[in-house]
Amino acid sequence: MKDQPKLVIIGLDGAPYRLIKDLTGNNIMPETGRIIERGTFVRMESTIPEISSPAWSSIMTGKNPGEHGIFGFTDIPIGTYRLTFPNFSNLKALPFWQKNTDRKSIIINVPATFPVKPLNGIHISGFVSLDMERSVYPQFLIPELKELNYRIDVDAAKAHQSTDLFLKDLDQTLDARIRASRCLWENQDWDTFMLVFTGTDRISHFLWDAYEDRDHPYHATFLNHFRTIDQAIGEIARSLTEDDLIVLLSDHGFELSERDVNINYLLKQTGYLKLDPQSRRGLAGMDEKTRAFALDPARIYLNVNDKYPRGGVTRNDFDMIIEDLISIFNSLQYNGRKVIDKIYKKDEIYSGPYTNQAPDLVLISNHGFNLRSGIKSDQLYEKSIFTGKHSQPDAFLLLGHPIEPDQLPERPSVADVLNIVENLAPSALTLI
After folding, report:
1. C-beta of residue 360 within 8 angstroms of C-beta of residue 301
2. CB-facing half-sphere around the CA of 257: CA atoms within 13 A
């Protein structure tokens, strides 16, 4: 019996289309360039907001957040002011490797998949993972991973101490990830193999300016990180047959970050967010005079009386407050530059049974502005250690097979990936 075609998905967290186009064009990533030559390379939109947890949840399920229920790294459940951290257990739609259990899958380092669940194959979760024991299935692999010095994520705290310490940890993490992946690739049976590199996001947050500036002392270091990943991609691609399918993608893009913009500070200054000055409970200390609050990066929730314990906003006032907030956000300027590019109402971007849990507004910034919603900020604009920020319309999708333009959505998004893959290789699918 002929083996069924293999599916390989390689993720580069946060790698923008324009970066991949640049690095393949300049021979920094020649192996990826060879896949582009024979395949299909397109720009792809991220989720709104453009952050990893909803984006990877959309990639792995083929659903938008209103269907899979993950809207950000944090949430405040309806009926509470308790800040929670949604994880894989909160995902309301099945990831593709749980849809077709006949295919044996190896899933490595996909963000927002902690704690792992049993599957036909192997699963090592990505960030945010709290401990190795709940990050690996089956658990007998843990000693081998520890022997390889495998770690879930880069220790980003090192970047606040020393750039060189951070880069050393970044290299060690990448090296261990590649060695562990190679070991599983060669020694385990599998039909679907998914591997995500997340150091690409980490180095871009701290050293995007090094990419933009060819004279930056770490410019070559930035390029070398992607060069190493490209070599691993080449090793994988050369192991596949013409019947197999390789897919490369990112969950969002990146761009230069010039200023952080603190949205909850703005809401406090304009009287929409009222906190008990004696309370240290953050948003849990808001009172009934609060009309709106924000969760990272810029998800705006109205404090509605039929959703929250001290909600002071009635449904009669809802539309008026929404329009007032839109006006405030649209008028926000820094040194004559408009801060907010787009403002979305929930029904414009989400659909599905969990839309009621979605933010009422989501803000997308103009170039250079990094929207944040920390509660402790005491000024509207700040400059942080980060030189790079996420961008929404500049993720990428690379299919190892050619596909006609009319077979793609006009504006492909991360939620379209599974459907695109299924349509690309119908004889193999069963792939997902």
Report:
1. yes
2. 24
Mean pLDDT (the chain, rounded)? 93
CA dist 355 and 71 (Å) reads: 10
Residue 45 covered by a domain: yes
Place of tokens 């949430």: 75
Summarised one tens digit per residue, pLDDT across range 302-325 is 999 999 999 989 999 999 999 999
pLDDT at 34: 97
Looking at the fold, whether 79 and 201 belong to one and the same domain comes out as: yes
**How many other CB atoms sit within 10 Å of the CB of residue 103?**
20
Residue 419 belongs to some domain of the structure: yes
Give domain status of residue 432, yes or no: no
Domain containing 136 equals 7-257+389-424
Token pair, residue 98, equals: 């749980």
CATH of the domain at 316: 3.30.1360
Whether the Cβ atoms of residue 16 and residue 255 lie closer than 8 Å to each other: yes
What is the domain count for the chain?
2
Q: Which of 10, 396, 417, 1 is nearest to 240 (CA)?
A: 10
- DSSP secondary structure letters along 256-299: E--EEEEHHHHHHHTTS--B-TT--SGGGGB-TT--EEEETTTE
Contact 13, 229 (CB under 8 A): no
359 neighbors 346 (Cβ within 8 angstroms) = yes
**One domain, residues 65 and 152:** yes
Listed residue (164, 194, 161, 160) closest to 177, CA to CA? 194
Q: Residue 1 falls within a domain, yes or no?
A: no
For residues 106 and 215, membership in a common domain is answered with yes
pLDDT tens-digit series, residues 235-290: 999 999 988 999 999 999 999 999 999 999 999 999 999 987 766 677 888 888 99
Burial class (CB in 10 A: 0-12, 13-18, 19+), 239: middle
The CATH number of whichever domain residue 207 belongs to comes to 3.40.720.10
d(CA 151, CA 153): 6
163: CB partners within 8 A, 6+ apart: 206, 207, 218
All residues at 6 or more sequence positions from 224 whose CB lies less than 8 Å from its CB, including other chains = none
Query: Partners of 20 in the beta sheet?
Result: none
Q: Does one domain contain both 290 and 323? A: yes
